[in-house]
Design goal:
heterodimer; A: mainly beta; Ubiquitin-like (UB roll); two-stranded antiparallel ribbon; 7 strands; 9% helix; B: alpha/beta; FAD/NAD(P)-binding domain; seven-stranded mixed β-sheet; five-stranded parallel β-sheet; 21 strands
């Protein structure tokens, strides 16, 4: 069956405590972007989101499943994943 | 507890982008035992980054064929691993983020295919949500971010801008402007050179045709990104007049910077910021080869043939490797043309204002850096470059703004949690990393 005709499998994740469904394989960084949720708050208090998209800049780091400093642009969403803005 | 036995490979490749895949496939074709390490979740690197199944990404036959050949070869890909350290006795150490484990690999021959990153230059508002790298936004779209209906300005410099704009448009974005900082005077000689690379000319023409309704301005660059909580407009200038371009997203990158950190850590010599290599792609360190963008930004075709040469040379199939030298030299010459055509104009050094953040990890502002005499002083006095990206973003920016050279590369070359280092067991030898700590 052509790819476009297969409904994508969806997984449930948690974004700052709110439940959300995203297509399987969605990068955690893009789930945050789509929801308008910052990945982290910078030293000076600015909201930051992904910049380089390829694991270099570390702007997309967030707390994932309780572990801080995870680069969300290299991390596909999995069922039950908990994403939190990193203070 | 996080101990894993050391693994040995005849040929170890770092990076599963086009160059690394070509190297591994070629080396494995000679029956050598080949392992490939990569930081990303899957093969392809950046330009061949795979999209999620639901993203509407056009299939790339060249990519699919290369990945199929790689999969059919005996080479093994270990993804999701960041190389953090190069120890003595031909060892590399990687950190597996998923498991928190540090692994050790040993090699007889090592091929570095560490790729490139985008160059970012600071301007007011560049830290706002809604501002991305050009390749950065494309990577995020491949990761499932929808740009459908969004107004996007694509700005900066390099051949990547057109490709990114075309892909974003295909994904439903409304490209409101493409601002290429290089002037027509430097682009025209480059366009003429393209005549001797017909495939590239056709590809460029295809992008341009797809974007026929989008203004492509040369000699035009961003001076500020506007908005409070997020981006609402970009201020563009052509040097004489400045205007506001309302938009939702800005995709902005100033060509590419080679990732040379691992090569430097291994002791490989650089020339003009790129890894110095022999015709066989061997570096100044014996048995260490380097391919693709770290040896000079020259694009996909150069990366593929360099990879193949290194793979064959490392597997001692020198005659086969030699047959490819001519093609490689031609592709590298194309890269030199890129450097000239997309050289940064001096005005870009004046975009940052005193309160503009230069180092995004530590929020160090331009005014704090102005009085510093060197990169080392800037690090010590302001913490510029001391955050998790280790100066990968602000280093090249500071080099452009202040002419500073970043010469010190120390392990770990990517951040590692202390818990992983403490529980890291195995090696009886004292590694360079442990000495540093």
């Amino acid at each position: 069956m052509p790819r476009d005709l297969c409904p994508p499998v969806r997984v449930q994740i948690w974004l700052n405590g709110a439940s959300l469904e995203v297509p399987e394989g969605t990068m955690a960084s893009t789930a945050l972007l789509a929801a308008g949720v910052p990945c982290r708050i910078s030293v000076a208090g600015e909201a930051r989101t992904a910049l380089c998209g390829m694991g270099i800049c570390f702007e997309c780091r967030a707390t994932v499943d309780g572990i801080p400093h995870r680069r969300t642009c290299q991390l596909p969403c999995h069922e039950g994943m908990r994403l939190e803005t990193q203070p | 507890m996080s101990s894993i036995p050391t693994r040995h490979s005849e040929i170890l490749v770092v990076g599963a982008g086009p160059a690394g895949l070509a190297a591994a496939t070629a080396a494995a074709s000679t029956c050598a035992k080949v392992t490939v390490l990569d930081d990303n979740p899957g093969p392809g690197g950046q330009i061949w980054r795979s999209g999620i199944a639901s993203a509407s990404i056009t299939r790339d036959p060249a990519r699919d064929a290369a990945i199929r050949c790689f999969r059919e070869s005996k080479a093994v890909l270990l993804a999701g691993r960041r190389v953090i350290d190069a120890g003595p006795s031909q060892t590399l150490r990687t950190f597996v983020e998923e498991t928190g484990v540090i692994e050790t690999f040993t090699w007889d021959r090592l091929i570095l295919a560490t790729g490139a990153r985008e160059r970012f230059l600071p301007f007011p508002g560049w830290t706002l949500p809604g501002v991305f790298g050009a390749g950065g936004l494309q990577a995020l779209v491949k990761g499932g971010y929808s740009v459908a209906g969004k107004r996007v300005v694509v700005a900066g410099t390099g051949p990547l801008l057109l490709a990114v704009a075309a892909h974003l448009q295909e994904d439903g974005a409304q490209i409101v402007a493409i601002a290429e900082q290089a002037g027509l005077g430097s682009l025209l000689p480059f366009a003429t050179r393209l005549l001797s690379h017909p495939a590239k000319l056709v590809q460029g023409a295809r992008y341009r045709a797809a974007l026929s309704r989008v203004p492509y301005r040369t000699g035009c660059w961003p001076v500020a990104a506007e908005g409070t909580a997020k981006l609402t407009a970009v201020l563009l200038t052509d040097g004489s007049k400045t205007w506001t371009e309302p938009c939702d997203l800005l995709a902005c990158g100033f060509h590419l910077v080679p990732n040379t950190e691992l090569a430097v850590l291994l002791g490989c010599k650089l020339k003009d910021g790129c890894v110095s290599v022999e015709p066989t792609q061997e570096t100044t360190v014996e048995n260490v080869y380097c391919v693709g963008e770290p040896t000079g930004i020259a694009g996909l075709d150069a990366a593929l043939v360099q990879g193949e040469i290194a793979g064959l040379a490392a597997a001692k199939a020198e005659t086969q490797a030699k047959a490819l030298f001519k093609r490689r030299d031609r592709e590298q010459a194309f890269g030199k043309g890129l450097d000239r055509a997309f050289a940064l104009r001096p005005e870009l050094r004046t975009l940052a204002q005193p309160d503009t953040i230069v180092c995004r990890c530590e929020d160090v502002r331009y005014a704090q850096l102005q009085s510093q005499p060197s990169w080392t002083d800037a690090k010590l006095q302001t913490r510029c470059g001391m955050g998790p990206c280790q100066g990968r973003i602000c280093g090249p920016a500071a080099q452009t703004l202040f002419g500073w050279q970043n010469t010190s590369i120390r392990p770990p070359i990517f951040p590692v949690p202390l818990s992983a280092l403490i529980s890291e067991p195995n090696s009886r030898e004292t590694t360079q990393l442990q000495e540093t700590l």
